[in-house]
Predict the structure.
Amino acid sequence: MNVPISAYLTLSGALLFLGMLGVMRRRNPLMLLLSVELMLNAGNIVLVGFSREWNDPAGQIFALVVMVVAAAEVVIGLGLVVAVFRSRINLDVDEMSSMRG
Amino acid sequence: MGEKIAFAVAAVGILGFGIGVVFLKDAFRAAVALIGTLLSVSLLFVILSAPFVAAIQVIVYAGAIVVLFLFVIAYLGDRGVVPGPDRLERFQVFGWLALGGLGAFGAIAILGSSPGPAGEPPAVTDVGSPAAIGHAFLDSYLVPFEATSLVLLVAAVGAVLLAKRAVQLEGGR
Amino acid sequence: MVTSLAWIVLVAPLLGGVLLASWPGEPPHRVTRIIGLGSVLIAFLLAVTIFVILLTNGADDRSFTSSAFEWISIGGVHVDLAILVDPLSVMMMLIITGVGFLIHVFSTEYMEADSGFRRFFAYMNLFVFSMLLLVLAANFFFLIVGWAFVGLASYLLIGFWYDRPSAVAAAKKAFVINLIGDVGLVLAAVLILRTLGTLDYAQVFHAAGIAQMGGAGSAGGLVPGGGTALAICLLLFVGVAAKSAQIPLHTWLPDAMEGPTPVSALIHAATMVTAGVYLIVRTHSLFDLAPVAGHVVAVVGAITLLMAATVALQQLDIKRVLAWSTVSQIGYMIMAAGLGAYSAAMFHLMTHAFFKACLFLSAGIVIHALHDEQSLDRMGGLRRYLRVAYFGMGAGCLAIAGFPGFAAFFSKDDILATALDAGALGVFCWVIGIVGAFLTALYMFRLLFRAFFGPDPKGGYDPAPHPSTKWMAVPVIILGVLSIVSGWVQVPFGWTGISDWLAPVLADVPHPLEPSNAAEVLTMTFSTLVVLGGIGLAWWLFAADPQRRIRLAAMARGPREVMGAGYRLDEAYDDIFVDTSHELAGVLTTRVEPNGPDGLINGTVAVVRSTARVLSAAENGMVRTYAFAIVAGLGVAGIVLALVVAGAS
C-alpha cells in the first residue's frame, strides 16, 4: 500500500500555507524571498506527484521550468535588495512603499 | 511500506524546516533551514520516481540559489535585522483568519474528494529517468526548453544592469 | 426626374454652406465667391429647369413627391425625409434661388472688405438651404425643421457683426420671438398628429378635404367649424405671426436691420418673412375648415398693415423705413390669405420679393457709397451721384406704391379686388388696404425725395459718394426691371398667370373667391387715385420745397413721436417680459442654484471624494497587505466554491 496522492496534496498545501504565512509576516525582503521559495517548492511537489500518478513526464518538465524561473527570480530579487541596501534605505519592506495611492 | 516511512521522514523534515524558515529571526539560520527544506523535498522527489528532478533540485536549488542567498546575507551583515516595531501588528488576526479560511478550503477540498481508485499501485516506470526527461524536452517540449534559456539570459542581463547601477551609485564606474 | 433635380436644388446650397463653414482658415475671396455663388446658381438653374418641365407637362401632372428614407418610425408615427414638388413649392423655389442668387452676387461686392467674408457666404448658403427645405418639405415635420433652421440662420446673420452689442441684442430678440412662433407651430403639429395620426401633407390635406365634405367621422375629429380645426389654425398662425412679423410679434424685424443690408434684403424682405404666408397657403385646407381662424388672420393682417405704415412714415433710418414697410406689405399678404385670396397673396409675395429686394439693395448701394451712413437727415440729392441706386429705388418705389403698370399695381389690386368678394370683413379689409396704399405711397416717396432729390445735406458729402461696381449694379438693375414687369403675369380683364399656375394646389378650396368686374374697376380707380394722391402729397412736403417739412415739423409732434417709436410696443414688452425675466434669473442665480443643483453636485463630489479616500487606504504601497489581500481573496473564494461543490454533490 503506498501513499495516496492526497497525502502529497496535503503536504503541499501545508507548505504553501507556511510560505504565505512567511510572506505576510516577514519584513526583511530577503526573508520574504525565502518564503516565496517555499511556495514554489510546494507547487513543484504537486507537479511531480501527479506526474507519477498519470505517468506523464510533463509534470516533471514543468517542475524543471519552475526551478529555472525561481532561479531567475532570485537573481533579480537579490540584485534589487542589494541596490536598495546601497541606497541607504532600511531593509524593511514596509518602508519600500513609495508606490502607494 | 518503505515508501510510507520515507514519506513520513520527508514530511517531517519539510514541515519542520519550513517552520524554521518562517519563524527564525536570524537571517542566516533561516537560510540554512531552507536548505533543510529543499533537501527534504528532494527526498520526496526520489520517492516519486523523479530522480533527475531530485538531482537538479539539490544542485540548482540547494546548491546555487541558497548559496546566492547566503552571499547576500553575509554581505549585508548585521543590517539584516529590521529595526522598529511592526506597524501592522494589530491586523495580525485578519491574516490568521485569511489563512484559516484557505486552510479550511483546502481541508474541505481534500476530504470532500473521493480518494480515487485505490487499486494497484502505479507501475514503476522510468518516467523520471534522465533519458525520458531528455526525450520529452527535445521532442514535445522544445519550446519551453528554449524559452527557459531565454529567461535565464534575461535574468543574467538584468543582474548585470542592476549591479552596474549599484556600482555607479557608490561612485564607481 | 423632376424630383431628382429637386433634391439637387435642395442639397447644392447645403454643400456650399458646409464646405465654406468647415474650410480651415480663410480661403481667397475668389474661392469663396465660386463656392457661394456657384451653389445657389446651380440651384436656380435647376429650379428653372423644373419649372419648364412642369410647364410642358399638363396641368394635371405637376405634383411629385419623393421620399429619401424613413426618418422616424415609432409606434404609429411615420415621418419620411420627403420633398414635394408642386406649383406652390416651385414658385417659392424660383423666388428663393433667383432673388437669392442676385443678392449673393450683390454681396460679393458689398462684403468685400469684411473679414468675415467666408463666414457670411457660409451662413447665406445655409439659409438658402433651410428656406428650400421649408418650402420643399412634404410633411409638417420637415417644415418645422426648415422653419427652425431658418430662424437659426436669421440669428446668425443678424448678429453677423458680433462685436456690436446692438447687433447681438437684435439677434437674440429675433430668435426669442421666433421661438414663440416655433412653439405654436409645434403644438399645431402635435394636435394634427393626435387628431389625424399623420404629419404627411398629402394625408392631412386629404383628410381635411373629406372633413370639408361633411364626412366628419372618417377624418377622426376634424369637423368644419369645430374646435380642433380652430385650435390647429390659430396655433399655426402663432408661428406665422412670429416668423412674418405681424402684430404683436413684429418687434424683432425693425431691430433685425442691424445685420448687413444683403441679409435684410434676402431674409427680412424677400424670403424668410414670407414663409408664414407660404404656410397659410399650403395649409389652406385646414384654414378652410375654421373660418373663424381665417377672420382672425385677416384682421391681424389688416391692423398690422395700417399700423406699420404709420410707423414707417416717421422713421429716419433708411433701412428702418424699409423694415416697417415690409411688415406692412406682409400684412397685405396675410390679410389676403386670411380672407381666402390665396393666389392673390402669393402673387403679392412674388412681386414684393422683387421690389423689396430691389429697394434694399439700392439702399445698400447708398449705404456703401456713403460709408455706412443710414440716416435720412444726412442724405439728399443722391440722384446726381448714384444713378443705379436712383433707378432701383425709383422703380421699387413706383412698384411698391402700386403705380399703374408697375408690379404691385397688379398684385395689390388683385388682393383688394378679391377681398371685395369676401363678405363684410372683405369690404372692411378693402378700405384698410386702400388707406394703406395711400400711406405706402406717401412714406416710400418721402424716402425717395428726401434721399435722392433736393440739395446735398448740410456739410456736403465727404468724401463724395462713389458709384458702385457692376457686381452691385447689375442685380439692382435686374431686380428693378423685375419690379416693373413682374406684375404683368396676372392682369385684370386679361390673363391670370398666377392663379392658373397655382390652380392644382388650390383646387379643393370650397368657396373660391373671384373678383367681379365691378370690383376690379372700383379697385383700380381708387388705388390709382390714392397712389397719385400719396405721391403728390410727398412731393409737396418733401421735394417741392425742402424747407417745408421743417416748418411743418411742429405739427402734431406728440402723436408723431409715438408713431415713430412703434407705438411704444417695444417698451411695453421690455417692462412686461424682459424685466421680469431678469428678476427671475437673478433670484434663480443667487438663491436657488447654490442650494439646489449646485448643492447636489457638490454633495456628490464630496461623497465620491470621501469614498475614494477610504478606498485608497487599501493602496498603501506595502507588499504585505497586498499579499494578505491575495490570500484573503483566495480563502473566501475557496470557501464559497467548496460549499457550493459540497452542496451540489
Remarks:
- Residues 48 and 122 of chain B are 11 Å apart (CA to CA).
- Chain B touches chain C through 16 residues (CB under 8 Å).
